[in-house]
Amino acid sequence: ILVNEATTLRHHAEAHFGGKYQKWASEHSFESMLPGDIKACKEHAQQQINAHLTERKLDERVIPYSDKLFKQAAIEWLVATDQPIQALEHPKFKEMVDIASCATNGVKIPGRKATCAEIMRMFKNHLMRLRNTLNVSNVPSVNCTLYN
Length: 148
Known about the structure:
mainly alpha, elongated
């Protein structure tokens, strides 16, 4: 079977004539194009790059409060999340803002999985309290399916 693809020929040359080819390439100042040599060259280059890189964690920046910035952020939140304007007047929104305003280093907002798990926990606790209040023996099970 004859194959004229360069990659196949390079693999063949490396498997059968690798030593001779590498010797010839070094004698003639030729850069080897054998797959193993290319891979080694890339790994060496990556190691040189990695030696210069340092991982830095970005510090969360706490923005100083001002009424103007809060108003702007609240309006942008309303628009971006398609909330009704009345959402800003809701007592739970005000409670959330009051709690967050006590934070000294910003607030950590939970992700989807943590939020779902907390909602399920709160719902189960609510059902348990309701069951105890009504003296009911069976509580339905609750599952949370996450959509990523």
